[in-house]
Amino acid sequence: MKFVDELFELYKNHLTGDEEDALIIINGILHDFNDRDIKHLVDTMPDQERFEMLALYLYEKFRIKVAEEGIGQTGNADDQDEVKFYH
């Protein structure tokens, strides 16, 4: 993505290699954006990049939900106490 490439060029000499660097930079940039800026950025993205952006967003939201609600605590109606093997 051209925007990310330009952002990287702008900040590459200030990065420490820590993942938090990216989050701090992106949050700072987005706080300066207005709705029109964000819409323009998304509208100029190729379809594949928009798909990837939405997929990553949904993945992160789902991952956070799983972490908040807990994992391994299934309560599915089809859970059974005993294991049945079908051969």
TrEMBL record:
This is Cytosolic protein. It comes from the Bacteria. InterPro entries: DUF6154.
